[in-house]
Amino acid sequence: MSLFSEESLWSRLDDVTGDAGYADDHPPRKGFFTDTSVCIGCKACEVACKEWNEVPDDGYLMTGMSYDNTAQLGASTWRHVAFVEQPVPSATTDLGMPSFSLPGADPQAPDPQGAESGDSGVRWLMSSDVCKHCTHAACLDVCPTGSLFRTEFGTVVVQPDICNGCGYCVAACPYGVIDIRKEDGRAFKCTLCYDRLKDGQTPACAQACPTESIQYGDLSELRAKADLRLAELHEQGVDAARLYGHDPDDGVGGDGAFFLLLDEPEVYGLPPDPVVTTKDLGSMWRHVGAAAVTIVGLGVASFVGRRR
Ligand code: SF4
Ligand code: SF4
Question: Which region ranges are annotated with the description Disordered (predicted)?
Answer without folding.
Answer: 95-119
